[in-house]
Specification:
single chain, mainly alpha, 5 helices, 84% helix, transmembrane
Length: 142
Amino acid sequence: MYGTIVFVHVVSAVLAIGPLFLLLPTIKRLRNVDLQTENAYLTIIKVIIRLVMHAGHLLVLSGALLLLTGPWPWNTSWVIATLGIMLLSGFFLSSGFTKVLRKYYKHSSKGQILNVLTRTTWIYIGLMLIMLWLMVQKPMLW
């Protein structure tokens, strides 16, 4: 059973990180498009964010199951660091993407909003990669 949970955890990690790299070219193409194409790209962005969000939920659930059934206690330094970054990334996903996309429709300076969206994407990718490193390497931080 533990091996199955590890597999689910790894697949959910891939689904929580991988689609984020599709956001970057999509945002870039969104800069100079007509209204119909703009709506299509925004729909793609929303689907990617939703996929990442749900994969993140599965990642958290499978990670909790791994901690409950595995050899590492909750107070291990890499577990605590991962949980801290996970909380930060959850806040970042909700405020960094959803709120920015809502502003996109309301503001005339869409270029600035797309810059924020690109920066937010890179920051979120960075947070996810740090968590991935912590989960794979399992460093003793303190």
